[in-house]
Specification:
mainly beta, globular
Length: about 700
């Protein structure tokens, strides 16, 4: 077992596992390989030649020979209720994404939502997004969610990898994971040091033609005895973005500063401590709803966003390596300071702050005929808003406490059949200081059950049932005051024509029940002695009860009745779909294809839901040249027209094709060793397109150049 984010050799003092360049080329070969996580865990725990690693978010990575599998939250029993996607640093450097969502856009049933302004983008997973997708960074929950403000406050340049778990995942992760989990891991010294080096660093410059973007990054890292450290900083800026066809999107420029500092100490052969500090600041002038243009209900705001995080992880191993405990303490503080210059002579100021404090204890034990995982999570969200001016939402001071305990076990019979039951209990409490009798509490039990059978040497079949829940947020329960006003006039004595927020402290928690069937196939030696073919298919059906929606009551101002906005629990929603992934590796050639489709319906009237991704096919071709120093490739996505629309939807979302291309060159030897050049082109044909259910068209062609030197 490995402790923490660093490689096993660094953490426990054994030899280091290869150079950064070697690992990058290796990951280029196997990044798309999918092996069932539980199968990998069982093999790893029973094979004497295996080496286990664990990334910065606590996601174990099990490596033996030339197979690398990103697993789940624990190194023993694995959650079986969703597909797993891993985007490694190699692909991030090929793609040079402007946002976390952009890094995931090639995956089946994952779509980029939030519009063309990169700071507002987030992933939609199987028809669910925002608060229904839990995000973590280095194991710490990121719970900021407020109005039309972005939720991903992290520069992709700081990332080591992004791991996505599709479908409900509450049995191990708790509230918020009814659509899935996006687990992000930042870089560490062990990811960047090569061989026996004890100190290193790099400088990097990135330029983009769309919006004249540029980013400068510097980093220093090292190893001194049992202590390793890293400091990584970047500054970037961009002008207004151009959408497909060349039209400029006004109010889309911004500046960003990011910092990551971390240190790790190997206390003994079975103990490790890691502490990290992360800072991000962004300045921009955008509409209050960045997925729209400036208008009456979406005025221009000058926005300053500051996100700070401190995370401490402590690992200890016992029972001759059969037990591992991980203790995590973290605190996130996200502030949005906004000024509306067009609202009155002196403008209007908004300040929104969300602070999340959390503790997580995770244990993994092998014994009593099974592999066990069990633990405890606690976190508190404190939300404070301060606003001035007339016809505004009222100030808020509210908090939520959530406590959860969980246990799961994997029983293997005859090395062929594995049964994995699990259960989690959560209790949450919430209260607003502004509303009398607003305190409420509730609890949820989230069971799961999975079964896998290894039918043949090349075929594994699995079935899983998982439940999940999402506690209502304080803004959904406690927001009150004016949503927006239509002007300073009255009609027949009715006063201001305004839309008013009505609080609803009695909202029920959302609940999801997901059934998934999977088949995973792996072949080798088909056309040559060294080729590999993997095929994965999945069919899923996710039913969500008590779906929370923002509802406008009396939207047409019927005489004598005000127009109000509130949050309500609506009837059951059903999300079902299919996924297929095929990857073929032979010599220096990589070929990939995936397909995803999702259908969403309101079961109360059999009508279609909004915000469901359109069907998508992605083709991926990559090839190495010059003794694998150079790699070139392209990814083409064919997105179908979204014709499954709610009756009230009047917009049309046509089909479109997107092609991205890339070239990377990194000499492994010689005087230029340490240099890496990259060229990436997004939207090669400058397609003018709009993602289904989004208001604005997306960015056009963007030619991106990068140059880095590692020393």
């Amino acid at each position: 077992m490995n402790f923490g984010d660093s490689a096993y050799g660094v953490a426990l003092g054994s030899s280091y596992q290869g150079t950064s360049n070697t690992r990058g080329m290796f990951m280029g070969h196997i990044k798309s390989l999918r092996i069932h996580p539980l199968t990998a865990a069982v093999l790893a725990l029973s094979a004497s030649t295996a080496v286990a690693q664990e990334d910065t978010s606590g996601q174990p990575v099990i490596q033996f020979g030339e197979v690398l599998v990103a697993a789940d939250r624990n190194p023993a029993a694995k959650e079986k209720d969703e597909s797993i996607v891993v985007v490694e640093r190699t692909q991030l450097e090929e793609q040079q994404p402007e946002s976390i969502a952009q890094a995931l856009k090639y995956e089946p049933n994952i779509e980029v939502v939030g519009g063309p302004r990169y700071s507002n983008q987030s992933p939609n997973i199987r028809g669910l997004s925002e608060t229904r997708v839990l995000q973590t960074i280095d194991g710490a929950r990121q719970n900021f969610n407020s109005g039309h403000r972005g939720t991903y406050q992290l520069d992709p340049e700081l990332l080591k990898q992004v791991e996505v778990k599709k479908g409900p995942a509450s049995s191990l992760w708790g509230s918020g994971a009814i659509g899935g989990v996006v687990a992000m891991s930042t870089k560490s010294a062990s990811d960047l040091l090569s061989g026996d080096d004890t100190f290193g660093g790099y400088v990097k410059e990135e330029l983009g033609t769309n919006g004249n973007s540029n980013e400068t990054t510097v980093a220093a890292y090292g190893l001194s005895g049992d202590f390793d450290y890293l400091v990584n900083a970047s500054v970037s800026e961009n002008d207004n973005v151009e959408i497909g066809g060349g039209e400029e999107l006004t109010d889309s420029a911004g500046e960003n500063t990011a910092l990551l500092a971390r240190g790790g100490l190997k206390i003994s052969d079975n103990q490790r401590l890691d502490i990290s500090f992360r800072y991000n600041n962004r300045d921009e002038a955008v509409p209050s709803n960045p997925n729209a243009n400036v208008g009456t209900s979406s005025p221009l705001v000058e926005r300053d966003i500051t996100d700070q995080n401190v995370t401490a992880n402590y690992w200890v191993q016992a029972l001759e390596g059969k037990h591992t405990s991980r203790f995590t303490v973290y605190r996130n503080d996200t502030q949005f300071e906004e000024f509306r210059p067009t609202q009155g002579e002196d403008g209007q100021n908004d300040n929104t702050e969300v602070t999340t404090t959390g503790i997580a204890i995770n244990n993994a034990t092998e014994g009593f005929g099974a592999q066990w995982v069990y633990g405890l999570d606690w976190y508190q969200d404190d939300v404070t808003t301060v606003r001035d001016g007339d016809n505004r939402p009222e100030n808020m001071n509210a908090d939520t406490d959530v406590m959860g305990v969980y246990a799961q076990a994997a029983f293997t019979f005859g090395e062929i059949f594995t049964l994995t039951p699990g259960v989690r209990y959560d209790r949450f409490e919430a209260k607003s200081q502004q509303l009398e009798d607003s305190a409420r509490d509730d609890s949820a039990v989230s069971p799961s059950l999975a079964a896998e059978i290894k039918a043949t040497e090349w075929l594994s079949l699995s079935a899983s049932y998982a439940t999940a829940f999402r506690a209502p947020g304080v803004e959904e329960m406690y927001t009150q005051g004016t949503h927006f006003a239509y002007g300073d006039f009255s009609f027949m004595g009715l006063g201001f024509l305004a839309n008013t927020f009505i609080p609803n402290p009695d909202l029920e928690a959302e609940e999801a029940k997901n059934v998934e069937l999977r088949a995973d196939m792996a072949f080798s030696g088909l056309a040559t002695s060294e080729d590999q073919l993997t095929v994965s298919t999945a069919v899923f059906r996710n039913k969500v009860d008590n779906f929370i929606e923002q509802v406008v009551i009396n939207p047409h101002f019927m005489l004598g009745f005000p127009m109000n906005t509130t949050y309500l629990n609506v009837d059951k929603a059903e999300l079902k779909g299919f996924e297929l992934g095929v990857n073929y590796l032979v010599s220096d050639l990589e070929l990939g294809m995936n397909y995803g489709q999702t259908e969403g319906k309101d079961l109360s009237d059999d009508s279609y839901l909004s915000n469901i991704p359109a069907d998508k096919v992605v083709l991926d071709v990559g090839h190495y040249f010059l003794q694998r120093d150079l790699k070139a490739g392209f990814r083409t996505a064919f997105i179908s027209a979204q014709e499954q629309l709610p009756e009230e939807e009047t917009r049309e979302f046509g089909k479109y094709n997107l092609t991205d291309a890339y070239v990377t060159w990194e000499p492994a030897t010689g005087s230029l060793n340490g240099l890496k050049l990259g060229l990436a082109v997004d939207n090669l044909t400058d397609e003018e397109y709009r993602v289904a259910f989004q208001e604005l068209y997306m960015p056009g062609r963007n030619i991106k150049l990068s140059a880095s030197y590692r020393f």
